[in-house]
Design a protein that fits this description.
Layout (H helix, E strand, L loop, with lengths): L14 H54 L4 E4 L2 E4 L2 E6 L2 E4 L2 E5 L1 E10 L2 E8 L9 E7 L3
Antiparallel strand pairs: 1-2, 2-3, 3-4, 4-5, 6-7, 7-8
Length: 143
Protein backbone atom coordinates (compact mmCIF):
# COMPACT_ATOMS: atom_id res chain seq x y z
CA UNK A 1 0.00 0.00 0.00
CA UNK A 2 1.33 3.32 -1.00
CA UNK A 3 0.51 6.33 1.11
CA UNK A 4 1.13 9.66 -0.41
CA UNK A 5 1.84 12.45 1.94
CA UNK A 6 1.16 15.90 0.66
CA UNK A 7 3.36 18.60 1.98
CA UNK A 8 2.49 22.24 1.71
CA UNK A 9 4.88 24.31 -0.17
CA UNK A 10 7.04 26.26 2.15
CA UNK A 11 7.12 29.15 -0.29
CA UNK A 12 3.43 30.24 0.23
CA UNK A 13 0.05 29.54 -1.31
CA UNK A 14 -0.42 28.20 -4.79
CA UNK A 15 -1.99 30.28 -7.56
CA UNK A 16 -5.01 27.93 -7.65
CA UNK A 17 -5.68 28.51 -3.96
CA UNK A 18 -5.45 32.26 -4.51
CA UNK A 19 -7.97 32.10 -7.37
CA UNK A 20 -10.38 29.99 -5.28
CA UNK A 21 -10.13 32.37 -2.29
CA UNK A 22 -10.65 35.41 -4.50
CA UNK A 23 -13.67 33.78 -6.17
CA UNK A 24 -15.25 32.93 -2.82
CA UNK A 25 -14.73 36.47 -1.56
CA UNK A 26 -16.30 37.91 -4.73
CA UNK A 27 -19.33 35.62 -4.41
CA UNK A 28 -19.86 36.63 -0.77
CA UNK A 29 -19.44 40.33 -1.56
CA UNK A 30 -21.83 40.20 -4.53
CA UNK A 31 -24.47 38.43 -2.40
CA UNK A 32 -24.06 41.03 0.31
CA UNK A 33 -24.37 43.88 -2.20
CA UNK A 34 -27.51 42.32 -3.71
CA UNK A 35 -29.15 42.13 -0.29
CA UNK A 36 -28.08 45.71 0.47
CA UNK A 37 -29.44 47.03 -2.84
CA UNK A 38 -32.74 45.19 -2.37
CA UNK A 39 -33.10 46.73 1.09
CA UNK A 40 -32.40 50.24 -0.18
CA UNK A 41 -34.88 49.85 -3.06
CA UNK A 42 -37.57 48.57 -0.69
CA UNK A 43 -36.94 51.49 1.64
CA UNK A 44 -37.26 54.01 -1.21
CA UNK A 45 -40.53 52.43 -2.39
CA UNK A 46 -41.97 52.47 1.13
CA UNK A 47 -40.95 56.09 1.71
CA UNK A 48 -42.72 57.11 -1.51
CA UNK A 49 -45.92 55.31 -0.50
CA UNK A 50 -45.84 56.72 3.02
CA UNK A 51 -45.28 60.25 1.72
CA UNK A 52 -48.24 59.96 -0.67
CA UNK A 53 -50.50 58.65 2.10
CA UNK A 54 -49.36 61.38 4.46
CA UNK A 55 -50.05 64.14 1.94
CA UNK A 56 -53.57 62.89 1.24
CA UNK A 57 -54.29 62.46 4.96
CA UNK A 58 -53.06 65.97 5.79
CA UNK A 59 -55.23 67.46 3.06
CA UNK A 60 -58.42 65.63 4.03
CA UNK A 61 -57.90 66.40 7.73
CA UNK A 62 -57.43 70.11 6.98
CA UNK A 63 -60.56 70.24 4.83
CA UNK A 64 -62.52 68.22 7.41
CA UNK A 65 -61.47 70.60 10.18
CA UNK A 66 -62.71 73.65 8.29
CA UNK A 67 -65.92 72.07 6.98
CA UNK A 68 -66.93 71.02 10.51
CA UNK A 69 -66.43 74.56 11.80
CA UNK A 70 -68.13 76.37 8.95
CA UNK A 71 -71.74 76.96 7.99
CA UNK A 72 -70.83 78.14 4.51
CA UNK A 73 -69.62 75.62 1.92
CA UNK A 74 -70.03 76.20 -1.79
CA UNK A 75 -68.39 75.42 -5.12
CA UNK A 76 -67.05 78.18 -7.36
CA UNK A 77 -65.57 77.06 -10.71
CA UNK A 78 -62.73 74.65 -9.80
CA UNK A 79 -62.56 75.61 -6.13
CA UNK A 80 -64.19 74.37 -2.97
CA UNK A 81 -64.97 77.36 -0.76
CA UNK A 82 -65.30 76.61 2.97
CA UNK A 83 -65.96 79.74 5.01
CA UNK A 84 -63.02 82.01 4.18
CA UNK A 85 -60.85 79.08 2.99
CA UNK A 86 -60.63 78.03 -0.66
CA UNK A 87 -59.22 74.75 -1.97
CA UNK A 88 -58.15 74.00 -5.53
CA UNK A 89 -55.80 71.67 -7.39
CA UNK A 90 -52.97 73.15 -9.45
CA UNK A 91 -50.22 71.01 -11.07
CA UNK A 92 -50.51 68.11 -8.58
CA UNK A 93 -50.49 70.54 -5.66
CA UNK A 94 -53.57 71.07 -3.51
CA UNK A 95 -53.75 74.77 -2.73
CA UNK A 96 -55.40 76.45 0.26
CA UNK A 97 -55.94 80.03 -0.85
CA UNK A 98 -52.51 80.72 -2.41
CA UNK A 99 -50.54 78.37 -0.15
CA UNK A 100 -49.53 74.76 -0.73
CA UNK A 101 -51.53 72.40 1.44
CA UNK A 102 -50.32 69.07 0.00
CA UNK A 103 -48.10 67.99 -2.89
CA UNK A 104 -48.37 64.84 -4.98
CA UNK A 105 -52.15 65.09 -5.36
CA UNK A 106 -53.48 64.01 -8.77
CA UNK A 107 -57.20 64.16 -8.07
CA UNK A 108 -59.34 66.54 -6.02
CA UNK A 109 -63.04 65.88 -6.52
CA UNK A 110 -65.76 67.69 -4.62
CA UNK A 111 -69.51 67.93 -5.00
CA UNK A 112 -72.48 69.31 -3.15
CA UNK A 113 -75.31 66.89 -3.97
CA UNK A 114 -77.67 68.68 -1.60
CA UNK A 115 -77.57 71.95 0.35
CA UNK A 116 -76.52 70.16 3.54
CA UNK A 117 -74.21 67.49 2.07
CA UNK A 118 -70.64 67.86 0.75
CA UNK A 119 -68.57 65.11 -0.89
CA UNK A 120 -64.74 65.31 -1.08
CA UNK A 121 -62.31 62.79 -2.63
CA UNK A 122 -58.53 63.23 -2.77
CA UNK A 123 -56.11 60.86 -4.56
CA UNK A 124 -52.32 60.82 -4.60
CA UNK A 125 -50.13 60.44 -7.64
CA UNK A 126 -49.23 56.79 -8.30
CA UNK A 127 -46.21 55.45 -6.43
CA UNK A 128 -43.48 53.23 -7.93
CA UNK A 129 -45.91 50.29 -7.98
CA UNK A 130 -48.52 52.44 -9.80
CA UNK A 131 -50.82 52.43 -6.77
CA UNK A 132 -52.83 55.49 -5.77
CA UNK A 133 -53.92 56.29 -2.26
CA UNK A 134 -57.43 57.75 -2.04
CA UNK A 135 -59.49 59.14 0.81
CA UNK A 136 -63.07 60.30 0.47
CA UNK A 137 -65.62 61.71 2.86
CA UNK A 138 -69.19 62.95 3.05
CA UNK A 139 -69.93 65.88 5.34
CA UNK A 140 -73.31 66.99 6.67
CA UNK A 141 -73.39 70.74 7.16
CA UNK A 142 -75.28 71.95 10.20
CA UNK A 143 -77.10 75.22 9.62
Amino acid sequence: MIIKVFHRSKRGIAIMELIIYASLILVVLSLGYSIYRFGIQSYINNVSSIENQSNVRIAIEHITYHIRRSNSVYIKENSLIVGDESYSLSDNVLMNKNNQLATGICEFVFDKPSPSLVYVRISSIPDNKQQKFTLEAYFHIMN
